[in-house]
Design brief:
The structure holds 2 protein chains of 2 kinds. Chain A is mainly α. Chain A contains 12 helices and 2 strands. Chain A has helices at 2-26, 38-60, 70-96, 121-145, 150-154, 156-182, 194-218, 225-254, 258-269, 271-294, 297-320, 344-367, and strands at 326-329, 332-335. Chain A has a two-stranded antiparallel ribbon with strand order 1-2. Chain B is an alpha+beta fold. Chain B has one domain (3-231): Alpha-Beta Plaits. Helices cover 22% and strands 17% of the residues of chain B. In chain B, the strands form 3 sheets. A 3-stranded mixed sheet of chain B has the order 6-1-7, covered by helices on one side. Chain B is globular. The mean pLDDT of chain B is 86. The chains are: A mainly alpha, B alpha+beta. The interface between A and B is large, with 38 and 42 residues.
Amino acid sequence: MKRAYIIAAGLILVALGAGLAWQGFTHKHDEEIVWGLLVPAYVYFALMAVGSSIVNSIYTVFGYRGPNDELEKIAKLGVAFSLSTIIPSWVIILLDINYPLNAVKIFLPPEGGIQFKYASAISWMALLYMFIALALLVELVYFIRSEVNERLKTAKRLKLAIALAVLIIAVILYSNLGQVFGNAMAVPGWYGPHMALFFIASSIAIGAAGQLLFITLSARELKMANFFGWYYGRIIMIVIPVLAFIKGWMIINATYNPATWEAYKLLLHSPLFYLEVLLVFIVPFTLATAAYYKRSLPLALIAALSLVVGGFVVKYNILTVPQLATQFYSFGEVHLAEHYIPSAPEVQIVAGAVLAYVGILMLAVALLPLKPGEKPRRILIFK
Amino acid sequence: MRPVFVIDVNKCVGCRACVAACIVEHGQLFVAAKPKNVGLPQTQRLRTWVSWVEREEGNNVSRMFISHLCYHCDIAYCVEACPTGASFKTREGIVLVDKDKCIACRYCMIACPYGMRYVPPVATFKEVKEKPVVKDALEGTKYGGVMFQPPVPNKWATRAERVVDKCTYCYHRYKGDGNIWTPACVEVCPTGSRLFGDLDDPNDPVAELARRGVAKPAEPSKGTGGRTLYVGL
């Protein structure tokens, strides 16, 4: 009965979210800046999905199982979380382009045939998102099917090959996403090699945080509170100093280039930057360190919540603020945009995608056999 | 044929007849009052713009008029960035946007180091007629006023859709016979500040300005090259 409620609530949230996002899309208009709220929102979910799959690889590729095989028990939940988290990123980016169905033109031009513009980082993004979703789906099917198929369960090489494919695609995806922004000579605040590094560290942090919240909420009966506090606390505790190091160097490097410094000056003068420092660096690091040493799940959960919220603020800052910076030309200075406040339709699209995402996670837990020992029974491809 | 566009900054008087001609040629809505004099096609949402740049050095105050339009770069980052092939280069080296292929991801706008691309404000003719400025103009036609005629239909005209738009050097005027044409803005420029020529024609006086190095790229440090060159910048 409880499961039926979860399914009903999940469907309602998906329907509400889809309606809200569509409402936003139909009222969308041109923004002050070229890439507004929807782009950081898409990057945020994409990074959380891929970061979560990197966290999964600690078990699936590198073979760490936990003191009592805890990671083996939560592997399916982790993969399902990664796969579900890709969906809102797709929804948001498709609604960001003004004609969502036209996205197929990346591969199928109107004149017929198949094309691939290998010089375009966005073409690669489209391809890599399909590959990562496919690889994650195969991985999820593998884990679910191996509960009932002894041959699959013992096929260690197959399991490693699938997991390795996910990891390799994830790393290429980060690099390419970094290049989408890092290649943009027109936005000096992004230009350079640091964006891919920033994305990888940031995604592991928010991926681990998102995964902890999802697994704790969806599988409370697992009774692994101490392990979760210790394990996720440790990941967050390690990755945040790395992220802070990269962020620090981004700021230091920016001082050497007047055009980049213009963007960073705006960033440093924005109150959101200090919110970012608080939510992404100070609060999670302090709490995650305490959670690790005390093996405390509540502390790890607060750290994760802070990171999940702060992770979005980081993406918003780094991707919107540099577009407002003064540009220097031979004839003088130009502001390509004076200010930017997300419009109501943009907020509706993101809010709709978030609602639908929560619904999808609920449906995943209710419909898929993700918990340890649960046998596939509902959805045909998993039987 | 390799077209070249030369802008002689010393001759420009900032009348913006070129902007008006471009708007008429490509069927855009012209709103004369712009919030800022300094801007680029991306900020003004027009294919071309003339900035009024004021400078103050001690007691000397001067004003320059700088024309902006797509540079049609030799190394065109916008073309590289385009995931669908909507942005492409013609045989003559002109960078165009095929609006049937554009998905409006706007990556070309992010990739363009010069802010020369934009998404036009979307307005159907019905919506346009409701705008006060157009209502007034329509009213004026009863007393002898003239409304801009609809543009000559062509593949490169501005569309009332959210797809990326940019300067085409009026490529639709090219007859395909290998002879250079005259863009609308060049045609109306009263001082000869805007010039258009063929780099492959040894007797072309405009091309000669480029060959002699009198006309130069505006931002050589960015290394993209291009066909829009400036004299006196």
